[in-house]
């Protein structure tokens, strides 16, 4: 069993042997298992009720894909472009995403469990009603100008990420580990940060957020 730990979060990772995977280029069936997709392009494709299990997807172009319902389980996704994709109502479990791009991607009613996102870009991405049913971690990711709304992500880890101009709306993040991130450009009501874990070096950023949230005017004495 392969695991990794980010902060206090332990994630069960896929355990794939490339020698056991047959390389293919197309999704022929509603359920695909134990194959390698390398350098494929499904740009703009329409996927419905598809299940992809135990697969490795590398250097693929999945930009502007629309995927509704189905599951992604036990997969490794490396260096893959999902920019502009829309993922709706799918379950993603025991997967690792490395060096992949989610610029402008929309995740709607997506369920996450045992997921690692490492060195991924979520600039301008939208997460709406995304929920964590188990361990989830983001490391060295970028979330510039993204928007999270009505998400339920308790206990997740976001470590060493860039959160510049990320907007949070009606999100539940209690128990989330936000240590190692700059918060000064985070755009959120303070109640979205209820119960999160921060480091002492982030107190100045939290103070700035508080001053802005309460519309406090700072004036010099005299």
UniProtKB/TrEMBL annotation:
InterPro entries with a match to the protein in the record: 5peptide_repeat (IPR001646), Pentapeptide-BTB/POZ_domain (IPR051082)
Coiled coil spans: none
Highest rank taxon of the organism: Bacteria
Gene3D superfamilies: E3 ubiquitin-protein ligase SopA
Pfam family name, one: Pentapeptide_3
PANTHER family, alphabetized: BTB_POZ DOMAIN-CONTAINING PROTEIN KCTD9
Protein name: Pentapeptide repeat-containing protein
Species of the source: Micromonospora craniellae
């Amino acid at each position: 069993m392969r695991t990794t730990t980010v902060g206090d979060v332990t994630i069960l990772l896929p355990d794939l042997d490339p020698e056991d995977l047959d390389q293919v280029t197309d999704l022929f069936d509603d359920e695909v298992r134990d194959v390698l997709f390398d350098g494929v392009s499904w740009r703009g494709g329409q996927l419905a009720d598809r299940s992809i299990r135990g697969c490795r997807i590398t250097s693929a172009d999945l930009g502007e894909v629309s995927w509704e319902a189905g599951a992604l389980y036990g997969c490794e996704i490396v260096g893959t472009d999902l920019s502009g994709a829309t993922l709706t109502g799918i379950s993603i479990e025991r997967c690792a995403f490395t060096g992949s791009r989610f610029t402008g991607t929309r995740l709607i009613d997506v369920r996450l469990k045992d997921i690692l996102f490492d060195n991924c870009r979520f600039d301008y991405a939208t997460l709406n009603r995304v929920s964590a049913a188990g361990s989830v971690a983001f490391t060295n990711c970028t979330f510039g100008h993204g928007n999270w709304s009505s998400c339920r992500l308790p206990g997740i880890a976001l470590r060493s990420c860039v959160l510049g101009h990320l907007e949070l709306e009606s999100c539940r993040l209690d128990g989330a580990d936000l240590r190692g991130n700059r918060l000064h450009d985070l755009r959120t009501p303070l109640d979205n940060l209820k119960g999160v874990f921060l480091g002492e070096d982030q107190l100045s950023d939290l103070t700035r957020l508080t001053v802005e949230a309460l519309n406090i005017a700072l004036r010099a004495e005299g």
